[in-house]
Amino acid sequence: MEEKVFPRPAVAAVLENYVEARLHTDKHKHLREFQKELTQSVAQPVYLAVDPVSGTQYARHDGATLTSDQPFIDFLEKGLAAVM
Known about the structure:
The protein has one domain. 38% of the residues lie in helices and 13% in strands. It contains 3 helices and 2 strands. The protein has helices at 9-15, 29-39, 70-83, and strands at 46-50, 57-62. The chain has a two-stranded antiparallel sheet. Helix 1 (9-15) runs parallel beside helix 3 (70-83). The longest helix is centred in the last third of the chain and has 14 residues, at 70-83. The relative contact order is 0.20.
């Protein structure tokens, strides 16, 4: 999604309101454990809109949506609406 969906104009416009942080769990067991603690899942991709101080999760999107931008945009907008 990072290569195909994020650059699309409608998605990129909403993403401008976010600070991106990635968790790469491929080779690090402790990071997989952190992902499971944070998301209750080891599936990928999982996208979260999270308050960096409190850890409050405002929105979640599981899996890739390559055929339509709208589900991911809805996730992003839900996260923004929760903090505004």
